[in-house]
Fold each of these.
Amino acid sequence: MDIALYQGGASAVEGVADVVKLSSNENPFGPSPRASDAFRQSAGELHVYPSTQHERLREAIGEVYDMAPEQIICGVGSDEIISFLCYAYAGPGDEVLHTEHGFAMYRISALAAGATPVSVHEADRVTDVDALLAGCTDKTRLVFIANPNNPTGTMIPDAEIERLADGLPENCLLVLDGAYAEYVEGYDAGVSIINTRDNVFMTRTFSKIYGLGGLRIGWGYGPQDIIDTLNRLRGPFNLSGPALKAAHAAVRDVGYTARCRAENAKWRAWLAAELDKIGVPSDPAFGNFILARFSSEAEAQGCDAYLKSKGLIVRMVGSYNLPHCLRITIGDERACRRVAAAITEFKRQG
Ligand SMILES: *Cc1c(COP(=O)(O)O)cnc(C)c1O
């Protein structure tokens, strides 16, 4: 009962039609049409048990991301990989580090494994490597950072990740959560860092740029001994056949992924600039959302309520210790224009 229940993004407003959900960082365009087709085609095979080793999906991921397929493990969302890591490497008496405004699942999974989550200070909403290194003790087993981070949207350069990996005590694993890595043009999410070390692991997801949050698919990549360990915790049929088929088609449609990345970058920059003009700043954002800062908690709450009344659902992030901020997913052009117009009107009304 010490675990605070995860709060998902809201999706409906009573009495308001034309609602846009911008609270869960979903892809406004949905998955690649090829992924939807693959899912529909799998309807005729629902009586067949799925693959246990996920070879086809791991090979496709390996090809697209230049990863060795045998060093990949697929899970029910990256959430499942995060929980495998905690169950495998942290238990009672062990500490699991996460950043001050880090993703809620690190803390939840650490507690579920009986370990002690430790929150480490960030420098103005940016991961602080010195603080993380200083936060390590001989009890630290796992250090989770998301790069780009959610809900801040900020990221740190590879050189900083390397400094963190190389400065960690022995018997401590660095986990890079790359849920938003595809939104960063040309970013390998730390693959080359992992390939030259034995203490760095990565989690990835099909829930964000691939638009398959509803199917629950993610993966982990890292040193072989860690993959071999996590596979012992994994249920043999953790991923359904339709999910595997859809993910396979999605990851191979690299053209679609590139178009989603470009569209997101364009409207993210536009929305951030529009809000900045009216006194609502945000940090340079690297994912598919921005963290809009208001002058007070009351103003953020007022704006959230105003947006809701206009059918625009964004995310309050008080539970992430950012009560004066709203996290806004980058929707399509129409959604971004609606958000900018509504916040402008809210500010004008004072
Ligand atoms: C959305 C998100 C995930 C994805 O979780 P899934 O279980 O793969 O849907 C992971 N990490 C972070 C930081 C996220 O924001």
Note: Residues 254-277 form the longest helix (24 residues).
Amino acid sequence: MPGFELFGEKEKAQVQDVLDNGVLMRYGFDAMRNGHWKAKELEAVVSKRMQTSYTQVVSSGTAALTIALASAGVGAGDEVIMPTFTFVASFESILAIGAVPVLVNVDDTLTLDPDAVKSAITSKTKVIMPVHMCGSMADLSVLKSICNEHDILLLEDACQAIGGSYQGKPLGSIGDLGCFSFDFVKTITCGEGGAIITNNEAYYKNADHYSDHGHDHVGTDRGAESHPFLGYNFRISELNAAVGCAQIRRLDEFVNIQKRHYTTLRDSLLTLPEVTFRRVPEGGIENYSFLNFFLPTEALTRKAHKALGESGIDACFYWYDNNWHYYRKWEHLLGKKSLGRLPKDVLEGMPDYQNVDFSASDHWIGRTISCLVKLSWTDEEVKARGDKMKVILKSIF
Ligand SMILES: *Cc1c(COP(=O)(O)O)cnc(C)c1O
């Protein structure tokens, strides 16, 4: 997955443009910048590649999610449906605006189970936030029809699946809003960065203002701009955006490498009857950043994960025990441990997650192994890796 593996001359040249004029900020200083507007350029390239009208590039994927929610008018006490299997950023962004994270089971797509989503909807539900974990997507047409039926927004977290598609459309572009992360370990990196994409002009304008203290960006005197509503500072720097300008143009090159390596690894495991693969919804094409598979039992999965690690097959994850990606280890969220007092709406609105039954998620995540697909491997290395994985897995069955 990580774009940093292929950091090179193109990235350096983009950064050098910024260093040459010294304008490290994305707004203003028009005369000094010699025509270089890296954040704006990155926004234009992302919009084109994602076939959406608008892109706002910001400081991180977590910021992008927070801004996306805020720009759609989500606020205190509103409920946002999110999966039990995701990165902590999902609930962080929801809590940041005083809204309530409603955790919902995942299914064999490793993303939101549409039936579980339906049962979680209340009169306070404002958003369904599917997270396209580990390179593949949620069942978006079903989720979209649920959203339409209940007048709820669809916000796609495509941070781990940039470059994938669903029914011919880029992931992130199908919901009312979509978010990407360009942090250091994502398929495309800025070092730190993120983006919100949308076809909704009002949401875009809100995101543009909100991410820069509420600045309306009208006129040429920044200090004289007005502030129609409260905002924050979630700006990206020109240095970070410059790296993204080089990387985003390499997205298809990166996805093609991932696809080749993924296919080699998958082919190696195809003949093992105990191995089944994660379900990709019909019409979906992964970005191939991880190979995800299930084993028959939790005990066998633990054993396999251990054996792979001990044999030097690195970067295979057992999310069930992971501190950051599965609800079981989110004791800070489950125990509502915050530095200061949480808002009343959150304290009263959040279910008692210490006592909620997510065994339907455990059924899948407890048996899942996800192997990161690296860009820097040679074809020979991938072939050897696949052969070795097969031998190791066979030995424990
Ligand atoms: C990385 C990630 C984020 C957050 O992105 P940052 O840029 O690290 O803040 C959000 N959601 C998912 C699924 C991620 O993998």
Note: The mean pLDDT is 97.
